[in-house]
Specification:
The chain contains one helix and two strands; from the N terminus they run ββα. It has 53 residues and is mostly helical. Strands 1-2 form a two-stranded antiparallel ribbon.
């Protein structure tokens, strides 16, 4: 989800992206996979740090 800021500096929701072409659908799906992998690695690193404390 994206968030924008209005003229008063308050957060304002932005409508979700809607891919229109097959290429956009593919790129969005690949981005979701990269994000999931990135978050999993981050979680693993944080777990490793807490194990040593």
């Amino acid at each position: 989800m994206f968030v924008a800021v209005d003229a008063e500096g308050r957060p304002r929701a932005v409508p979700p992206l809607a891919p229109e072409t097959d290429d956009e659908v593919r790129r969005m799906r690949e981005a979701e996979i990269r994000r999931a992998h990135r978050l999993a690695r981050k979680k693993e690193i944080e777990a490793g740090r807490s194990d040593r404390s």
